[in-house]
Amino acid sequence: MTHPRSRLPRANSRAVAAMALTAAAALLAGTPAASATPGRTGPAAAGAESLAAPDIPIGNVKAHLAQLQSIATANGGNRAHGRTGYKASIDYVKARLDAAGFTTTLQQFTSSGSTGYNLVADWPGGDPNQVLMTGAHLDSVSAGPGINDNGSGSAAVLETALAVSRAQLQPTKHLRFAWWGAEELGMVGSKYYVNNLPATDRAKITGYLNLDMAGSPNPGYFVYDDDPALEKVFKDWYAGIGVPTEPETEGDGRSDHASFKNVGIPVGGLFTGAGRTKTAAQVTKWGGTSGQAFDRCYHSSCDTTANIDDTALDRNSDALAHAIWTLGTESSPPGESYENTADVAVPDNGAAVTSSITVSGRTGNAPATLKVGVDIKHTWRGDLVIDLLAPDGTAYRLKNSSGSDSADDVIATYTVDASGETANGTWRLRVQDVAAQDTGFIDSWKLTF
Ligand code: TRP
Ligand code: ZN
Ligand code: CA
């Protein structure tokens, strides 16, 4: 049954007829309805926004090192895989993270007949589809306490994670921290983690940052040059304090980042040098002793709390915080548009139809002022009920039907508070014609973030 209504005189009924013809022609020509690839336009290089990082207190980082030294001393002088000092180190780090609100997971594996452990700590929140991971190996060699290799990286990553908690950071990306076991046996723990991660979870890791040997006593300032974007965030920080850096070359792939790089995950990191000798040119840049190893106690019993350069460890801790804050809180530039220009017929007094726009490559949620540009040609727009459907299906009413709104067409831009919705995913415009006689089609529609 059709409801009665009065038809108002039309200003330009020929134009309406022509429009209807255009729609029919487009549909007859087989224009795909909702499957066209939406165009993406917007400001070219607007530059992502992100928050400034706090200073990481070096005293706190060194307090963790003192704890790791005590653990080694109490457990036969080392914190090596399969030894009691390793498990005690894991327990120490885990307790600090648990108290700070992290969700921690202990992952067990077996290597050389002994049980090994990885500790994974997730900071609740952020986009679960974009994971920024940071890690350090927590095991030492059996020859010594492993304070520079790699208590230094472990402590810097721990204190940065605790700073995330102190700031109650609400990052756009999901932040995950990890402490690896059995690195010294050939990156066993990190390989185990990566190999046991389902492919879908692997694909969510946007980057992995590694710290291994972050406070060598005769330090160099090396930045992993594996991924240009991750390298840049560290180099920018060092440029800001006027300290030159060099690309890390002392055995590429000799730490846990290799496990991630091997499966195609972008990696970055910091390193202050191991057994290699510092050159005169490097002393000119960084000070220290030329002709001497960056770490003369590398893999030996003298790798104690005395084997740390505080300035290097302080800088690398702050640089890491800068990288996590920058990469973890960056939001996509505003103003980008996504459009679907494929026509979709709206059946007269019939079922709802939809047209989709798939958004990808953004971070975080949609804005509170998401603009929905709608261009629907119709001979009596009062017939139309229009909703925006978020990727999770939540409907936002853009327009209700009206028995008295006899004008043509809906050509309008609506503002939707979509701040509770993830930006990435398939958005749909849902249009239903709820009254007989007049008809039309979705000509195009557009989302502007
Ligand atoms: N733990 C590492 C190892 O013994 C130390 C190391 C050497 C390293 N070269 C490196 C760490 C380069 C990072 C990058 O192999
Ligand atoms: Zn190491
Ligand atoms: Ca109608």
Automatic annotation (TrEMBL):
UniProt-annotated location(s): Secreted
Segments forming domain P/Homo B: 331-449
Record-level GO BP terms: proteolysis
Gene3D superfamilies: Galactose-binding domain-like, Zn peptidases
PROSITE patterns to which the protein is assigned, alphabetical: P_HOMO_B
Keyword ATP-binding: no
Keywords: Calcium, Disulfide bond, Hydrolase, Metal-binding, Protease, Secreted, Signal, Zinc
Family annotation (InterPro entries): Galactose-bd-like_sf (IPR008979), M28_fam (IPR045175), M28_SGAP-like (IPR041756), P_dom (IPR002884), Peptidase_M28 (IPR007484)
Cofactor(s) recorded in Swiss-Prot or TrEMBL: Zn(2+)
The keyword Zinc-finger belongs to this UniProt entry's keyword annotation: no
Single GO MF annotation: serine-type endopeptidase activity
Pfam family, one: P_proprotein
Main location: secreted
GO cellular component, one term: extracellular region
Family: Belongs to the peptidase M28 family. M28A subfamily.
Protein name per its UniProtKB record: M28 family peptidase
